[in-house]
Automatic annotation (TrEMBL):
Residues 180-315 form the GGDEF domain. Pfam families: GGDEF, PAS_9. NCBIfam families: GGDEF (TIGR00254), sensory_box (TIGR00229). Residues 20-90 form the PAS domain. This is PAS domain S-box-containing protein/diguanylate cyclase (GGDEF) domain-containing protein. The lineage of its organism: Bacteria, Bacillati, Bacillota, Negativicutes, Selenomonadales.
Amino acid sequence: MTDDLREQQNGLLPEDYATSEKMLAEIVDLTYDCLLLVSVETGGIVYANKACRRLYGYRSEELLGMPMQEIAARDRNSLEREIQRVIKKYPGSYQFETTHGTKTGRQVPVEIISKLVVIDGKKFLLKHIRNISKQKKLQLEAELLIQKLSNHAYYDQLTGAHNRTYLFSVLLPKVVASQLQAGILLMDINKFKFINDTYGHQAGDYILAEFAHTVEDCIRKQDKLIRYGGDEFIVVLMKSSYEEAVSSASRIKKTVADRQFIFQGQRIECTASAGIAAGKFKTEKDLEVWIKQADTALYEEKRHLTVVAGQGSVT
């Protein structure tokens, strides 16, 4: 077998063809990702393959000599910092994500691998640029899906309030970890069974949802509303004393009583009762104690008594 045949069989190209500038240019232009050669001295673009022209929308003659910061939407100092990072990585490469601007002003997320190369004694940045718009879109969709699933996991779908899973799995560990003082309101809707029996379950659902919205409007952003079960709700008042919890409960009950709840043209009277407790959360068992105290106070209020759970310490 001749050397030429052996060379062809091994997939090798003749030396003069492999090193031809035309052949290399064709290979580079077939590359789907962008390749830019940027002068370290001037910061100007000295080479751009066809993929760059497709991505940025500039003609070849517009790209050549263009300052890199026009595409990168960064100042010369930012480019200098990138150059220093690339130099530190030499002979390796520096990889990062950023946003580039097109001729039309559209912002495109890109991933860049930048490497220092020396050609005829001059330093250049060889930049491999990949459009990651699709990946970012998929990432955003995944994040939205996770958030949606989280909402299903931690929120009551009827009222929009947090649920018991959130209370015990998310909120309680945070409160205990911070050794937080908090007020607990255990609330329910007075005569809710009567509302369901008289106006129907759709009306009951309406009252539950609107009651939750009303309570949300009465509490601070840092406080949390939890649908505990049925028509029972727990309000966790962060960094609140017992006296502040009493004041919050009075304000919520007054707001609910003063509001007009109208379902399908019918006004439905809605009032609420509240049991109150407060204390410092040292262990997760403390929440159970405060809820029991608040439940006792709620029961007493339901019997039209004025006794409410007092402050105490959990032993």
